[in-house]
Design a protein that fits this description.
alpha/beta; Dihydrodipicolinate Reductase, domain 2; 2 domains; globular
Length: 340
Amino acid sequence: MKKYNVGIIGYGWAASAHIEAINKTKQGQVTAIYSSRKLDDAELSAKHGTPIKSYQNLDDMLANPDIHVVDISSYPSQHRNQAVAAANAKKHIILEKPMANSLQEVREIVAAAKANGVKGCVCFECRFSNQFQVTKALIDEGLLGSLHYGEVDYYHGIGPWYGQFRWNTGKKDGGSALLTAGCHALDALLMVMGNEVESVSSFSTKSSSDEYDTTSVTLIHFKNGAIGKSAAVVDCLQPYYFHTHLCGSQGSLLDDKFHSMKLHTDKHAWSKLSMKMLDSGDVSDHPYESQFQAFFDALDEGKDMPLTSFPESLKSFEVIFASDKSAEQGGKPVRIADLG
């Protein structure tokens, strides 16, 4: 079985979860870490259970022919340059969300990967969660019929108690309520409703002194006539909640409950689904392992991975940046085709 040696770019909070998940896959093993801080190789190797060489010069790590994949979990403002450099060095790429801080930068990453014949994986790992795998299976089995309305919302108060808070409050790396975290919900909505979007309208606000609006709500008009809604609220004071409500011609789903006319269930009561819910923002609880396993399996076959490849994720980021543009214009609708 082929082994993929992985070099980590950015040794922070998310990287620790990535390393553990990569090392649990059948093919992946972390062998290098780039950090602006000086790291001790012996300590890293002992902590993560594999021999690891540290680098303080990214070019040196990318020049190592024994590294096949890089995992970028650095600050979002650094993603574009690091990802393009990795692609030019012929390394496959695992890239934390957001892919970059602008649609142009995202497109440049995707173009660089295509030009160099490398594959990408974007950390929209919620698509691999048990909650959304079960939800998608329910839809694919036709139990909800044809969906005409869907909402997936992200409620997660990001404060000093949360790992990314120290860089999250600034516009440079926080970006927007969607870019910093709420994109998980909007991306999940596109997974279940389809990513053929005609236009979006969005409004945003904030409750604190952050440099950007930390609450937004996006209304989506799909090309097939369906509509959707996604709220991104990262300044709430409540337990983590990944709200999902889907309505179709044969039934509805609300989080882990559903009703289907096809099953002749009692429409006065919900039927309960047995599945693990997305109920934590802690990266250690995210389903990275199943996502990375799918990525390495796709590399074995020389094809794009399912669900979260660079081309697939680009479609989500087009909607995300269109939403932020609409919010900046006071809710004016933005057509995806007009993004240029």
